[in-house]
UniProtKB/TrEMBL annotation:
Pathway(s) where this gene product acts: Purine metabolism; guanine degradation; xanthine from guanine: step 1/1
Pfam families reported in the protein's UniProt record: Amidohydro_1
Domain annotation Amidohydrolase-related: ranges: 63-425
GO terms of molecular function: guanine deaminase activity; zinc ion binding
Protein name stated in the entry: Guanine deaminase
GO cellular component: cytosol
Organism expressing this protein natively: Ramlibacter aurantiacus
Cofactor binding description: Binds 1 zinc ion per subunit.
Family statement: Belongs to the metallo-dependent hydrolases superfamily. ATZ/TRZ family.
InterPro entries: Amidohydro-rel, Guanine_deaminase, Metal-dep_hydrolase_composite, Metal_Hydrolase, Metallo-dep_hydrolases
Cofactor(s) this protein requires: Zn(2+)
Keywords: Hydrolase, Metal-binding, Zinc
Reactions this protein catalyses: guanine + H2O + H(+) = xanthine + NH4(+)
Amino acid sequence: MKAYRAALLRFDDQGTPIHDEDGLLVIGPGADGTPLIRAAGSYAALCGNFPGVAVEHLPGRLLAPGFLDLHVHFPQLDVIGSPAEGLLPWLEQYTFPHESRFSEELHAGEMAEVFLDELLRHGVTTALCFASSHVPSVDALMAAARRRRLRLIAGKVLQDRHSPDGVRDDTEQSLVDTEALIGRWHGQGRLGYAITPRFAPSCSEAQLRGAGELAARHAGVWVQSHVAENRDEILWARELFPAARSYLAIYDDFGLLRERAVYAHCIHFDDEDRALMRDRGAAAAVCPTSNLFLGSGFFDYEGADRIGMPYGLASDVGGGTSFSPFHTMLAAYYVGREGQTKPGLSLPPAQLWWQHTAGAARALGLEGVVGNLRPGCEADFLVLDPSATPLLARRTAHARTLDELLFAMIVLGDDRVVERVCVSGAFLQSSPPAGEPTR
Ligand code: GUN
Ligand code: ZN
């Protein structure tokens, strides 16, 4: 067992933040040996309960749960910052050409290491990832995540039509490959698999039907896709599936809305769509930097909360512009604030933080597993330095409340705030051990 004395940020079941200004976080093995959080709370209340346990004192630091990224594209690392007229030209001009290179095992393997380095450097310890449409891209990412003992969920993209040579897959083979990948990776250590139809316009009816059948056969795996991101995309989807009530309803018609299904964007929704998400137990991945960069629109927080549609935050790299949860939370604040096209809200900073940690874990069905500092959660946490830059130091020195402290970090912070990252009970050094087999 090991304990850390510092300020703590954690959340109760309602998502209310708890700030222990002088706190103690105790890490120790669970029943099966997995490093877990054994206790989190005030130092004064807890210190007598763990005699003999070494305590590392981290004055001036804030211990917080590792962030979760609910939607990120592993093969789009080098697509970040590629401007286009909108989503569909962006896919054609930049995204598909880049993703086509991930059929190469060597390239995928190298990029997996860079991708995981970036996530971790920014304090993201769990991610729901799109690989490319090529099996080696999934194998490379999963193998790299397993070596680092990360809790990571990923899937092979399904796209058997309206996609260029190099990324288009074959209907039958794509489903066979998906089932084989589920068998190979789902539940291996901390890894999970996500059935990943790219979006309805890139998938034939047969492919969507097959994906839905897999989702029914493998209830524990996740499902991920995109929906209602961009007006041209929506018109296209409606033309291709004229019988569906809405774009979202296409996925429902194929059995792809269920618990553990996470849909990116969910911008241009009506209340019936929001209620359908809620009733099926599906969640939205809100991707504000992407939506601002590609000019897609503004997620309607008021609508989501009024109907009770679950959601959490995501980078959507490479449509998104940053791996940094601080940048994503700030963009989410701007998006919430926008009040010309939908009701404008001023989202409290602790609420933004919850959406990227415990709230995101709830959206994934992993509440109590990751995303919080509470007994039983896996030991993924961050040591944050609220005075990491001169301006942050000035600003946080006179923060009078938790809200002021968190807002200063959201507005002024980035990877420099993330001083140390603990994954599964061990602090990261630099690169993971090399030389392990990729399968
Ligand atoms: N819709 C279909 N594919 C993609 C993608 O790669 N990124 C985004 N943002 N939307 C998509
Ligand atoms: Zn995306």
